[in-house]
Amino acid sequence: MHSFRLYPVLAFGALAAIVGYGLLSRHDKKSSEQLERERRTQLTLGGRIIDGNVIDVLELEDDESGRQMILLVYKYDVAGVTYEASQDVTHLRQFIDLYSCRLGLPTSVKYDPHNPGDSIVISETWSGLRKSAIQLPHRSVAQSRTLV
Questions:
Q1: What are 43-85's pLDDT values in tens digits?
Q2: I need a labelling partner for 70 at 20 to 30 A (CA). Which of 62, 119, 120, 135 fits?
Q3: Whole-model pTM?
Q4: Which has more pLDDT, 67 or 106?
Q5: How far apart are alpha carbons 145 and 8 in whole angstroms?
Q6: In the predicted model, is pLDDT for residue 133 greater than 50?
Q7: Domains of the chain by residue range
Q8: Residue 139: which pLDDT band, with cuts at 50, 70 and 90?
Q9: pLDDT of res. 83
Q10: H or E element: which one contains 145?
Q11: How far are the Cα atoms of 91, 138, 145, 146 from residue 142, in angstroms, in the given order?
């Protein structure tokens, strides 16, 4: 008969555990966009800068959601290891001129020194994309002689 006295205590403990787990697991989970924004911010603030090159700009359509995704593909070298990475720049389109991103465009890459494969080329507050070289207007030989 003494064992029946423990059942209410065990039931109360189990109920408290279930309610506690439910409350702890209810906290707001961050969306993938929020996680990516935080990753970009961390790399912007604490990443090391190295030279790299843009390889390609890809426009892909996501099979599941049907939304269009723009990937900036680039490569860079850290300590003799070549990394090839891509960054989803769909939400950063207002900061990029996609038509100027061409094969071999020099760029600066920010990477995590503890994980060199984690890198970015552009964020909301920083851009490693460089403008093409400034081209001076061509002058004819006759114009250059008159200036001398």
A1: 888 888 999 988 888 888 776 767 788 888 889 999 999 999 9
A2: 135
A3: 0.64
A4: 106
A5: 104
A6: no
A7: 32-120
A8: low
A9: 92
A10: helix 141-147
A11: 50, 12, 5, 7
CA distance 34 to 135: 40
C-alpha to C-alpha distance for 9 and 103, rounded to whole angstroms: 69
Token pair in block for residue 73: 């593909």
Instruction: Give the pair of three-digit tokens for residue 35.
Output: 């996680």
Tokens of residue 1, six digits: 């008969």
Which own/partner contact pairs does 4-7 have at CB distance under 8 Å and 24+ positions apart? none
* CATH for 32-120, options being 2.40.50, 2.60.40, 2.40.10, 2.120.10: 2.40.50
How many other CB atoms sit within 10 Å of the CB of residue 63? 6
Place of tokens 């100027």: 100
How many residues belong to the chain? 148
C-beta separation of 108 from 52 below 8 A: yes
pLDDT at 137 over 80: no
